[in-house]
Amino acid sequence: MRKALFAIISPVLAAALLFSACAKPAEQPVTDVTATEAPAPEETAAICGDGYTVEVKTVYYPEGSDKDTAKFMLALQLPVFENTAMNEAITEYEDELNTRITSEQLPLSERTDSFIPNTKVELSVFRAELPQGEYTNIMFTETVSFLEDGESEHARHLIVMDSDGNEQSLASVSGLYSPEDTVAQQIWNIIADDGNYYSDLTQDDIEEHLDLYNGFSVGDEGYTVYLPAGAVADESMGEQEFSFGKSALYPGFVGDVITADEYTQILPMLNAAAAACGPDFTSLSSVPIGDQSVAYCREYWLQGRDSRTVTQEEYRSAYKFPLSSSLPPEEGPGVELKDDGTVKLTRVTPFYGFQSEDATLKENGILTVTGVLMSGAPGDAGAAAAASASAMFTRLDGEYYLSSFEIM
Predict the structure, then answer these.
(1) What is the C-alpha radius of gyration for the chain, rounded to an integer number of angstroms?
(2) Over 50: is that where the pLDDT of 10 sits?
(3) Do 44-168 and 173-245 agree at the fold level?
């Protein structure tokens, strides 16, 4: 990574910063502010398109100082989204960064005539499209420089949000209730035979350094996890990143009993059945009806999200039961038919999901998946096992259909 060697932010550098965050540069002046005075986004924002602009700031520390008297300087890029709900997490990051600079970096700063110690924050925004909808990755790359000719420190802070502006963890995106063990195993598999990494590393060592809230990103095909410098290799190698496909987090029977594509197909049905049966601890031996069918179709499409809007055709298509010609009710708990013909889906509590553990496939095509009925959603601090459960699927024309869900 580049070192941040600069004293003040000029309009030329501001344009360069904007170019790195946007598809096209914008010639915008940078507003100089004190540590407690933040400019309004519209005063420093450059239009990037794709639903957000970029605000560029220069902040001087301590409070009341300027570029001639400051002991420390912050130059940062912040996204300003049209979806205002997404901006709350950005504000929280900015507040946390300001606190960190004031308490940790400012006390260590010694300004010279030619150099102001500084933190430079560069922005990258990229999207991912998963079956349950779009996710926005917001990556802040921080570079801290205390000396003009010294080494710089680098770190990343990531925020992953769904299209409604809800911040997501890797657990909530992947649907895996305890992803730490699986992620640590995947990273260990990658580095185990590579001499560039510590030779005595264990999976527990890797797990200690995981941040599956602000240390990962989501792609169309999988995930990337970022580990700080010194976590798994010599600090001189810098921050490490490890990427793996979505199927890498699937249960062990995937690849042996059924394919990753087949598991991807049945996973929404497993969680939909758990949501339909969990609240009353009732098993499902035929087509769900009433509120049970509403819950089934709702969770089939939510797939871990708090809310989502789908078409009526999409909503009804979740009701995949070949031996039934009935349709689910158009409205019910967490399901609202809008005037424009769309269906607004909202998570209902208490929430129940399914954690797969094992599977068997008979010669007649009957697939049985056993696991745990979970109370709470993946990523929820209070999520816990509620009961054992199993689901049975019938294969017709190359596709699996849910035939029963039993809570034991």
Answers:
(1) 25
(2) no
(3) no
DSSP string, 159-172: EEEETTS-B--HHH
The single-letter code of the amino acid at 18 is L
Alpha carbons 23 and 215: distance in angstroms, whole number: 24
Q: Which residue has the tokens 């580990």?
A: 227
Q: Number of C-alpha atoms within 13 angstroms, CB side, residue 48?
A: 27
pLDDT band at 322 (very low <50, low <70, confident <90, very high): low
Q: Which CATH class is domain 44-168?
A: alpha beta
Tokens encoding 187: 């990273």
- Output 38 or 57, whichever has higher pLDDT: 57
Amino acid identity, residue 271? N
Answer yes or no: are the C-beta atoms of 356 and 330 closer than 8 Å.
no
Count of beta carbons in the 10 Å neighbourhood of residue 363: 5
SS3 159: strand
Residue 152, both tokens: 């710089």
| DSSP assignments along 378-399, one per residue | TT-TT-EEEEEEEEEEEEETTE
User: How long, in residues, is the chain?
Assistant: 408
Both tokens of 163, joined, read 């299209």
Segments of 163-306 assigned E as strands: 216-218, 222-227, 240-245
Are the C-beta atoms of residues 90 and 57 closer than 8 Å to each other? Answer: no
To which H or E segment does residue 310 belong? strand 307-311
* DSSP state letters, 28-80: -PPEEEETT----HHHHEEEEETTEEEEEEEEEESTT--TTT-SEEEEEEEEE
Chain mean position to CA 18: 24
- Domain regions of the chain by residue span: 44-168, 173-245, 260-407
* C-beta separation of 233 from 240 below 8 A: yes
For 327-345, what is each residue's pLDDT tens digit? 777 788 999 999 998 999 9
Q: Say yes or no: domain 173-245 is CATH 3.40.50.2300.
A: no
- Is pTM beyond 0.85? Reply is no
- Contact call for residues 74 and 99 (beta carbons, < 8 A): no
CA-wise closest residue to 81 among 56, 58, 57, 47: 47
| C-alpha pair distances (Å), 52 with each of 47, 78, 103, 146 | 7, 10, 31, 32
Considering only the C-alpha atoms of the chain, give the largest distance between any 2 of them, rounded to a whole number of Å: 80
